[in-house]
DNA sequence: AGGTCTTTGTTCGATCTTCGGCGGAAGTTG
DNA sequence: CAACTTCCGCCGAAGATCGAACAAAGACCT
């Protein structure tokens, strides 16, 4: 009796992860007989999940037929909804982006309007990629607020008026829809794209506000209420005067977020409103702005130092609008983290800017959808249907 | 084809978790045929892992034969090594304590001496429970310092001279030995014993120092270097003058740990050395001590407030020596956490004293061993051998 | 008390999976 | 171009699982 690794879903997982590209690989990895593997692969091919490509390199004998996910008959979408933008990426089953688009969109216009816009963009992208609507298997959506992941309903989001408890998945009828916090999907995108082998990773988004996506043991940690990673309202010392929109004072976000820096710059006579304005000032070489960004980095670093001791990640990725000036932000963060965290925890810790950049959220949202669809359970359901 | 849940290991897991106590239960839960289940159960009985007890209650038909883990032929031990004590619990396969003992033992005497002592105690406990040494299947050990869990080697532990990189499991020859940080095993013990249904839990140990065990998704989170949960050296605001043994200042442990409180009391003319002295003073009604404990609670609460925002646990358990005066400690902690954490995260959060108490560490260490032994993979290995 | 009903557990043949050897296919190497 | 290697499909054998039939053990009704 085999110890367990053998279902069609497991086989597909190995193919999709790139662990195996041939039938022989699969036999070696699963321990199943070659004939059994062939049978599984046949079933997957018949369902349109896997395809054979040209023969690969010979290693001295008959060259193996390469296997890969069938990219034609399946499409997925990742949707990145921000306070003022909407970015949609259409992806194939391997996670490659087929088409994408971005435009301005106020999330405050409410779920009906926003989701109608998303739906329209989905149609456009599908048309551009010349795929019928029917191949769209699942959609992942990242939204700027807390979500009850299991039901896809926003949970008292502060900047999404009208969205509270709105059943987002129902809007799209049959298609599988997964809704998550934007920082979570960014963390997922960054992890899968740039750090696939890392077990424990933190993705810190520094934009108008500050949030953090947590990858623990390769999976997103959402916490009990789905509010994990909300580090923007952690208190930092020495800033009791800084009031925060949450009602408390000295919140990290209220002293080191893009909006807070912009306000400080305005007070100094340098008009700035958003994180983008701050970035522009820094890039223009303004030393005041530079100093404030670096100081913000120190404050963020102070909080991260605590979290490093607590969570002991292998990698911390800094993303979000302000990471465009990451040299200065990172300098402050690194300085503080390496000073205030324990040596054991920092010894192998690396703190880097996002390698995935602006696309991380849409990508991560799409990957959320793809991984859901490719989960062994779901694949077994499809194959045995 | 069954979607997967069927191996002997899976069946045993259901029995050990209490999810199923009869063959019919197993058939219902796994979806396998009754005859298949009987076959699996027979194999488990033959290997001495499961036993039948008297018939249970009839529900209108033939009463089912009850199944449970076979308690006679298997024993496990949990060892709680502190700086100055050694506690050993001998447990059966269901996690019941068969015999236990505790005595003073300086961990600073080095691994050879300490482990010889443990080994001797194991023999005594086995004799007391009238079991031959051969039934001891696995041993879990909690030690007061960081450990590389995979190898069971202490990793530069500050208060365990001579233990660095010592291969603890090798000392016991054939028996399976799992070594982990003491706070981790306490968290495990508390979780399994008092909060089995909870997914995300923090166990905070307030003793001489301060540490935290993390249960995420029902499993221990150890972090990249196994140093996760080391919250004793998180910085707290407004105490820059308090130097810590780690070389930094304003560490939580340096201002709110038992040793720190004792020192402050001594400065106030109330001689105290250890956390136990502090507890004694509080219990004698000393208001200075009471005030300091409550203030320590506030400082711990400040750190926990950050961690609640970040990790979003369902339960925080307070344990360790100082939790003997938990009313005062908890008052300070709750006060600060509920003030400084986000409502979404605190809404369903409960902060409670340890229900498992002094035995949590030895219990948790034993459970670590038992769960390792009962893991489906290991059971399948045993049954198919 | 005795018959009927319900639920449990076992036995056993039928069916479905998986295994592994064989032979053909498709390359490489000398 | 012959020998070798690796890959892949085919097929009979071995093994696992199922489900029907039957026996066991108690509840329930008359």
UniProtKB/TrEMBL annotation, chains A, B:
Pfam families: MarR_2 (PF12802), ROK (PF00480). Residues 49-68 are annotated as: Disordered. Coiled coil: none annotated. GO terms for molecular function: DNA-binding transcription factor activity. Residues 8-56 form the HTH marR-type domain. InterPro entries: ArsR-like_HTH, ATPase_NBD, HTH_MarR-typ, ROK, ROK_cs, WH-like_DNA-bd_sf, WH_DNA-bd_sf. Belongs to the ROK (NagC/XylR) family. PANTHER family: GLUCOKINASE, ROK (REPRESSOR, ORF, KINASE) FAMILY. This is ROK family transcriptional regulator. The lineage of its organism: Bacteria, Bacillati, Actinomycetota, Actinomycetes, Streptosporangiales.
């Amino acid at each position: 009796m085999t110890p367990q690794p053998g279902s069609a879903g497991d086989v597909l997982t190995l193919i999709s992860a790139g662990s195996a590209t041939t039938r022989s690989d699969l036999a070696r990895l699963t321990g199943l007989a070659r004939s059994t593997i062939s049978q599984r692969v046949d079933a997957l091919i018949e369902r349109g999940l896997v395809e054979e490509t040209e023969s690969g390199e010979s290693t001295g004998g008959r060259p193996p037929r390469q296997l890969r996910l069938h990219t034609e008959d399946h499409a997925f979408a990742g949707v990145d909804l921000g306070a003022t933008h909407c970015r949609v990426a259409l992806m194939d089953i391997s996670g490659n982006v087929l088409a994408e688009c971005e435009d301005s969109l106020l999330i405050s216009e409410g779920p009906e309007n926003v989701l109608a816009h998303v739906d329209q963009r989905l149609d456009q992208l599908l048309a551009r990629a010349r795929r019928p609507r029917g191949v769209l298997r699942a959609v992942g959506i990242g939204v700027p607020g807390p979500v009850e992941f299991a039901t896809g309903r926003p949970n008292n989001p502060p900047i999404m008026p009208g969205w509270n408890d709105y059943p987002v998945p129902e809007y799209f009828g049959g298609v599988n829809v997964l809704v998550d916090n934007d920082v979570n999907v960014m963390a997922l995108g960054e992890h899968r794209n740039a750090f696939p082998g890392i077990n424990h990773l933190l993705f810190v988004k520094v934009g108008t506000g500050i949030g953090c996506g947590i990858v623990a043991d390769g999976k997103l940690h959402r916490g009990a209420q789905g509010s994990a990673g909300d580090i923007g309202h952690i208190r930092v010392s020495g800033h009791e005067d800084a009031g925060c929109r949450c009602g408390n004072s000295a919140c990290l976000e209220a002293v080191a977020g893009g909006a807070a820096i912009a306000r400080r710059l305005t007070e100094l006579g340098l008009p700035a409103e958003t994180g983008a304005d701050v970035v522009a000032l820094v890039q223009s070489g303004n030393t005041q702005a530079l100093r404030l960004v670096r100081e913000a980095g120190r404050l963020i670093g102070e909080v991260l130092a605590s979290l490093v001791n607590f969570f002991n990640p292998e990698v911390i990725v800094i993303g979000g609008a302000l990471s465009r000036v990451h040299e200065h932000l990172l300098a402050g963060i690194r300085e503080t983290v390496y000073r205030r965290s324990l040596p054991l925890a920092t010894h192998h810790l690396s703190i880097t800017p996002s390698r995935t950049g602006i696309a991380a959220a849409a990508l991560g949202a799409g990957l959320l959808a793809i991984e859901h669809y490719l989960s062994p359970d779901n694949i077994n359901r499809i194959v045995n249907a």
